[in-house]
Amino acid sequence: MTRPRRVTVVEVGPRDGLQSQGVVLPPETIIEFVDRLGEAGLAVIEVGAFVSPRWVPAMAGSDAVLRGIHRRPGVRYPVLVPNEQGLDRALAAGARDISVFTAASETFNRKNTNAGIAESIERFRPVVRRARDAGVGVRGYVSTCFGCPYEGPVPHEKVREVIRLLDGIGVGDFSVGDTIGVAHPEAIQAVFELLLREFPAERLALHAHDTRGTALANCLRALDLGIATFDTSSGGVGGCPYAPGATGNMATEDLVYALHAMGVDTGVDLNRLVDASRFLEGHVGPLPGRVYRAELATRARAPK
Amino acid sequence: MTRPRRVTVVEVGPRDGLQSQGVVLPPETIIEFVDRLGEAGLAVIEVGAFVSPRWVPAMAGSDAVLRGIHRRPGVRYPVLVPNEQGLDRALAAGARDISVFTAASETFNRKNTNAGIAESIERFRPVVRRARDAGVGVRGYVSTCFGCPYEGPVPHEKVREVIRLLDGIGVGDFSVGDTIGVAHPEAIQAVFELLLREFPAERLALHAHDTRGTALANCLRALDLGIATFDTSSGGVGGCPYAPGATGNMATEDLVYALHAMGVDTGVDLNRLVDASRFLEGHVGPLPGRVYRAELATRARAPK
């Protein structure tokens, strides 16, 4: 397998990032953030979730966000959908791409969705069917693929089994998540080699968390295996390492910087991306991304 | 080349780390930090620098530190030495290992030492000879091997040339430094493959900086090439990413965690290392290491 020369970065800051950040932003702020991310060249930007505002207050304005963004040609703006009611709202607001979600750990999935894995996937069957009938793309998130906060290690075979179930209900592609940031390059290799036996690389993404500083090494190992889609958040929004319980999304800038240095194209303009993160930082407080902070420091030292 | 099963971590927190942190700690605090690092199983701990206190106030107490630490059998406690006067002080205080330093960039070396590279290495000739005559080990630091803040990219061949000069005056082993944190795994591979043509892996170390989040990926690539010595600082002391001008030493915990997860031995007890970093944090303020912060968060959530 030759290493991909071009990578698709799935920017999850406006949804996964803000949801974990613990702040509620008005729709107009999220809209400006999304538009700035689009201007920076990101081709896939996750913009919201049609979940109950009682569960996730930060996503209460997703209708307004999806209606308010300035869609750029060729850019996709997926939203998270938990059930048919969520799908109705998403479609009404103009969604053209949705994501459903489950986990590779039974305990985690029960705590998160109040259902076992197989049951949660069955519940998604009508959502996926109706989305596909409407010509809407469907992604499946699989959490805790490398470890679970309740169960500890997760068998690699379990990840494949869950993705087979998602494939069986018509999900188009799969985001393999290291939810608690315990993956390392050898675990990445083991899981993806297993998945690549029956799914093409184009249908697989790595959703790496940088909780323990391993995210870039993990992405680069997956890249060597042919994986060319990675989920990251602008500035690393979604779990500051200085806060207890940090979730630690991988920062988009950190991935883009390293890939560009190694001659891999992303289509992202790093300077404009830093501008988008800086805009967001003004609303949520300090962001932890390393390249983001290094770039700000460089700008601060530059002659005016 | 088979990947090493065991790695030597060179803990540079008490010298390189504190020197860049911008705080001056009393010798007794540094002594306790060093002793805690020794208890955590670190086999090489850089404890000070015999440079002018006017240049580097943080290292003014290095005599007292070297005299005050509780030396553990098998542990080495190197100190930085800039000239013969520094060597005299180091030997008088009981140093058994010293380090000299130069750079792979002429401009950086001139700004740092007021001499060209070849000239600075000539100046070290009597220092190295006298140290070796006294049975003292000598390491050579080479800064800016992957990029220079003044010159930009540094030719790989220049790194080899500088290490040849250090070898020529009797330096025993070499720390290849990514001073400004711009290396990526392919640059690591190019430089170390060049060096390994004439120097054995046992004489080479990587001194990675995590300014842009690439340090772990860089260390793992070097490990794959047979490199088994890495310089890191406890908690990542020596350049907080939240501060302008951050230097960003790689955090010892981040390296140790990833290596252990991948089955590579370091001899370090991660819990005790976190204790040492927490002790230091009480004196210098928040430390940026990712595993360090994740471990603190885990402890905060654990039932009492």
Total E-strand runs of chain A: 9
The CATH topology assignment of the largest domain in chain A is: TIM Barrel
Q: Largest inter-chain interface?
A: A-B, 40 and 40 residues
Shape-level CATH architecture of the largest domain in chain A: Alpha-Beta Barrel
Strand content of chain A: 5-15%
- Stretches with pLDDT under 50, minimum 5 residues of chain A: 241-245
User: What is the total number of structural domains of chain A?
Assistant: 2
CATH superfamily of the largest domain in chain A: Aldolase class I
Helix and strand succession of chain A? EHHEEHEHEHHEHEHEHEHHH
Major sheet summary line of chain A: 9 strands, parallel
Q: Which value, in Å, is the CA radius of gyration of chain A?
A: 18 Å
User: What structural class should be given to the helix and strand makeup of chain A?
Assistant: alpha/beta
Number of helices of chain A: 12
Give the overall average pLDDT of chain A.
94
Oligomer: homodimer
CATH level 1 class label of the largest domain in chain A: Alpha Beta
Distance between the termini of chain A: 47 Å
Briefly characterize the structure:
Two copies of one chain form a homodimer. By secondary structure, chain A is of the alpha/beta class.
Describe this structure in words.
Two copies of one chain form a homodimer. Chain A has helices at 13-21, 27-39, 62-68, 84-92, 106-113, 117-133, 156-168, 185-196, 215-224, 252-261, 270-284, 290-301; strands at residues 8-11, 44-45, 48-49, 79-80, 97-103, 137-143, 173-177, 204-207, 229-232. By secondary structure, chain A is α/β, with parallel strands linked by helices. Chain A has two domains: 70-228, TIM Barrel; 232-304, no CATH class. Chain A has a nine-stranded parallel beta sheet with strand order 2-1-9-8-7-6-5-4-3, sandwiched between helices. In chain A, strand 8, helix 9 and strand 9 (229-232) form a beta-alpha-beta unit. The termini of chain A are far apart.
